[in-house]
Amino acid sequence: MRPVSTTTSRPPRRRARELLSAALTVVAAAALCWWSLRGVDWPSLLDTLRRSSPALVALSVIGYTLAFCVLDVTGFTLVYRRHLAPGVPVRDVIVVVCGKLLPGLVFPLLTKVVAPVYFRRRWGVPALRTLGATEVLTVADAVVLVGVVAVGALLTDGMPAVTAPLGAVVAAVLAAFLLWAWLPSARPLFPRLRANAFLSVLVRTSPAEMLVQLALRFGLVVAMALSWWLLLLATGTPLSPGHLVQFCSVFLIATQLPISVGGYGGPQGVCVLLLSDAWGLLSQVEAVALSLLWSTAYLLSRAVVGAAFAVPVFRLLRAGGPVEPEGAARA
């Protein structure tokens, strides 16, 4: 069965923007890797990698991957059932969430394609509405990020100078948006935006729903912090709780920016910038080795999960036509 043309065809200008975005991401990732690896003694780097504990590295990777999949599936299931299709099976959400990991390693924006195609073909939901639903989790991620950055700044000195103003700007934008979405007195403002297919799901998300998503996304941050703690143990690197929170807050910012390809780029820059240059806790070689362990583990774990769901997600995207909205509402 042919894919629905409205979700696969793109105007030339949009394709050009996507290609430019991909090119800039590759350049940024390459520049960060070059900056981090400049002057590194390769025999020392390989020796540092060999000294790491394989068991702790494996535990770090497997634990974080499981937590990521479980929490992501839970968050997306709640949003999809509440705002898109009440009858969407959890197994379909699992396939969509896990199946998008493999193409996401090649080009992160490809992760935004899978769910819109599925909901358009299976449930007749417009692509923009599905994209808006996924952004509920993005908003929750941003709120958690601001909170973690604030806690990290309070616990330990040494945050990069740009972190505080950047966090303040993000916090102000989030506060303004949520007040506009939730305050009854703000409803007359920009009524067309409230009816927009992309923003309508975000506007309809209640504070109680957002609170649940915040708890899930905070759980993901805790899982990431534990994963890094295990990775630090695997390399024999001591890091205080304050530094760990601060490190994770900056690392979270890096993960939200288009500066990594396949997990390489941003992690190398953050590890060298904080652990070596700013805090002096590790040598450049040790910081690079730690970042390469994370990036390689990230690549392999997501590649394995994505490959396991590659065939199921392909079949899911090709199966069946749209379900009637009434039938979806009764499911």
Q: How big is the Rg?
A: 21 Å
Helix content: over 70%
Mean pLDDT rating: 85
Extended strand count: 0
Q: For this entry, what is the oligomeric state of its chains?
A: single chain
SSE order in H/E notation? HHHHHHHHHHHHHHHHH
Number of helices: 17
Distance between the termini: 25 Å
Stretches where pLDDT is under 50 for at least 5 consecutive residues are 1-9, 325-331
Largest sheet: none
What fraction strand?
Answer: under 5%
- Write down the overall geometry: globular
The chain-level structural class is mainly alpha
Membrane topology: Multi-pass membrane protein
Pfam families: LPG_synthase_TM (PF03706)
Keywords: Cell membrane, Membrane, Transmembrane, Transmembrane helix
InterPro entries: L-PG_synthase/AglD
